[in-house]
Specification:
Elements (H helix, E strand, L loop, with lengths): L34 E3 L2 E2 L5 E4 L5 E5 L6 E9 L3 E11 L25 H18 L3 E2 L4 E3 L9 E8 L5 E6 L6 E3 L8 H4 L2 H10 L6 E9 L2 E8 L4 H14 L2 E6 L5 E4 L6 E5 L6 E5 L9 H15 L7 E5 L7 H6 L3 E6 L2 H14 L6 E6 L5 H11 L3 E4 L7 H9 L4 E6 L2 H13 L3 E8 L9 E7 L12 E2 L1
Parallel strand pairs: 4-6, 8-23, 13-14, 18-19, 18-21, 19-20, 21-22
Antiparallel strand pairs: 1-5, 2-3, 3-4, 5-6, 7-25, 9-10, 9-12, 10-11, 12-13, 14-15, 16-17, 22-24, 23-24
Protein name: 23S rRNA (uracil(1939)-C(5))-methyltransferase RlmD
Catalytic activity: uridine(1939) in 23S rRNA + S-adenosyl-L-methionine = 5-methyluridine(1939) in 23S rRNA + S-adenosyl-L-homocysteine + H(+)
Enzyme class: transferase
Length: about 475
């Protein structure tokens, strides 16, 4: 949660979305140097204005069409950063934030904007970033969205003991390492939200609370999981954690040690899992603390279902190469649809879990899935995989850094269809430019509102390569 809404570098070029574009000509009031008219939203959700001298100002908490008085808290050569001091004219799409911690907690930075407008903004951001690379979509991206509250199934909370011995549990304040105490969170799933107050009380009862670094919360099919980052063992506190787990019916483990921490379960070791949709029913995805798991289960299901729909029909035995496969979020459903999947991941523990998941879901389905480990930031490794597997379909689901090495390799060794799932639209646009320059065309585009009330967005693009026999009529990009 502390990472939600975190600013990305290069704000001077962050741009203004097409949200409420009719407001773009709005001018700031003359004669009031600190009264500004908000012309649009930057990609990170801040309002964008210009001073009478033409200098750009990014204003936290301001929305398109509003007039505000601001306080500048950071001055740069090309732009200033400010926050709202007084709201003079409010946007019709301004709403009361549902969370009492809004404005202090560094998480949900768009709760003051109506949900439909948040989602239009995210669609506009993807279109604009692609447009900067010379890629025009024929239609707005599809929207994959779910509930506005109670959606987040995993979170990480900081723990701090202050100079007076006070215990703090919560998320980081905006632009700070300071913790904001959280006793309720509107975006956490209810089973995790209900643990916040009892966890705070328990931390206050520990003999060595300074040995606790942070807490990780996770909702699985088997119930809530609490993982404690414990710097040093303390037997008395371990018993307190065990009593807490029994009282609240949760699974509880510790990452124990300062360096090379090891996982130590304080309750019976559970077999944890979650479900993902398949073509003929749900599949079981075995997970463990430390594995990557999408935070929003409802939206993740929509993304997986969309991937299956976009790639349908998959011919029996069609070769699929899934890069950055994790524990099988897309690999398993594609294998269940009849594809022959080679799934590649860099983390050895997740590769092992991926193989186990393939075996666990195979009875009655005859899944064909091979799990491999490789460094996918290394272009040579990707080229070798493409040459060896000879895939008809490639799936990319990289971290925020994107998949530039894989994209360049796919220019040299094109495949009929390429599905790119991204958690950072800027790196997606960069990689899409490589692919379009290499001859690919975008067939489908979607924005997934994975982190509601934040400026973070997930997106999906389906590329096709001309002459492959798979290219559909009327591809949706031109480069």
């Amino acid at each position: 949660m502390a990472m939600l809404g975190k600013r990305r570098p290069g704000r001077a070029s962050s741009g203004v979305s097409g949200l409420q574009g009719h407001q773009a000509g709005h001018r700031e009031a003359t004669g009031e140097q600190d009264a500004l008219g908000i012309r649009g939203l930057a990609h990170d959700g801040r309002g964008v204005a210009r001073t009478a001298r033409g200098k750009t100002v990014f204003v936290e908490g301001a929305l398109p069409g509003e007039r505000v008085r601001v306080a500048v808290h950071r001055t740069r050569k090309r732009f200033d950063e400010a926050h709202v001091r007084e709201l003079l004219v409010a946007s019709a799409e301004r709403v009361a934030p549902p969370c009492p911690h809004f404005g202090r907690c560094g998480g949900c930075d768009l709760q003051h904007l109506a949900l439909p407008a948040q989602r239009r903004h995210k669609q506009a951001v993807l279109e604009e970033l692609l447009g900067r690379q010379g890629i025009a979509l024929a239609a707005s991206p599809e929207l994959l969205a779910g509930a506005g509250e109670g959606y987040r199934r995993r979170a990480r909370l900081g723990v701090k003991v202050d100079a007076d011995g006070g215990i703090h549990l919560g998320f980081r304040a905006r632009h700070s390492h300071r913790l904001v105490d959280i006793d309720a969170c509107t975006v956490l799933v209810p089973v995790l939200d209900a643990l916040l107050v009892p966890l705070h009380q328990l931390l206050a009862d520990l003999e060595a609370p300074r040995q606790v670094g942070h807490l990780e919360l996770l909702e699985s099919d088997q119930g809530a999981v609490v993982v404690v980052r414990q710097l040093r063992d303390h037997p008395g506190d371990a018993r307190r954690w065990q009593a807490f787990a029994r009282a609240h019916g949760v699974h509880l483990a510790r990452w124990l040690g300062r360096e090379a921490a090891e996982l130590d379960w304080l309750t019976p070791v559970p077999t944890l899992s979650c479900r993902v949709p398949g073509p003929d029913g749900a599949l079981t995805l075995g997970i463990a603390p430390g594995d990557f798991l999408q935070a929003n289960a409802e939206v993740n299901d929509l993304m997986v279902s969309t991937a299956l729909s976009w790639l349908s029909p998959l011919a029996a035995g069609e070769r699929v190469l899934d890069l950055f496969a994790g524990v099988g979020n897309f690999s398993l459903p594609l294998a269940a649809a009849g594809a022959r999947v080679t799934a590649v991941e860099g983390n050895p523990a997740m590769v092992a879990r991926l193989g186990d998941n393939a075996c666990a879901n195979s009875p009655g389905r005859r899944l064909v899935l091979e799990a491999r480990q490789a460094d996918l930031a290394e272009p040579t490794a990707v080229r070798e995989l493409l040459q060896e597997v000879g895939p008809e379909v490639v799936v990319l689901d990289p971290p925020r850094e994107g998949a530039e090495a894989a994209s360049r390799a796919l220019m040299e060794h094109p495949v009929p269809r390429l599905l790119y799932i991204s958690c950072d639209p800027a790196t997606l646009a960069r990689d899409a430019a490589h692919l379009v320059h290499g001859g690919y065309r975008i067939r489908h585009a979607a924005v997934a509102d994975m982190f509601v009330h934040t400026s973070h967005l997930e997106s999906m693009l389906l590329f096709e390569y001309p002459g492959s026999g798979r290219q559909a009529q009327g591809a949706t990009s031109d480069g």
